[in-house]
Amino acid sequence: MFAVVQTSGRQYRVSEGDTITVSHVEAEVGSTVDLKDVLFVGGDSPSFGVPFVDGACVVAEVVSHERGPKIDIYKYRRTRRYRKSIGFRAAQTTLRIQSISQN
Q: What is the residue range of 56's domain?
């Protein structure tokens, strides 16, 4: 069984036992998080949501919090002697999918 879940404005295809990296989720390491925004549940009897599947829930365990790769931003204006360099690292959370339930 698999599901398509929406979190932090992005969609992920997950099944039990998968590990995904999403934008930062406010939860302690080792705790469980319920992902209620399930768009599709596949398997023996697939069901589509309009926009979300009623009664479907994906339970995930928080594995770790880390920061993503550095993104370099450079702005330049050629005739104005303007140069600006900024670095940015986004906060990310790693989740392990424990179960997918559909009522």
A: 2-101
Q: How far apart are CA 21 and CA 27, in angstroms?
A: 14
Which stretches of the chain drop beneath a pLDDT of 50?
A: none
Number of domains in the chain: 1
Return left, alpha or beta for 51; rule: phi > 0 is left, psi -120 to 50 is alpha, else beta.
alpha
Residue 44 is predicted with a pLDDT of 86
Please state the pTM of the whole predicted model: 0.83
67 C-beta neighbours (distance < 10 Å), count: 11
Tokens 């906060």 belong to residue: 91
| Contacts of 31 by beta carbon, 8 Å cutoff, 6+ apart | 61, 62
HSE-up of residue 12 (Cα within 13 Å, Cβ side): 22
Dihedrals phi, psi of 17, to nearest 5 degrees: 95, -10
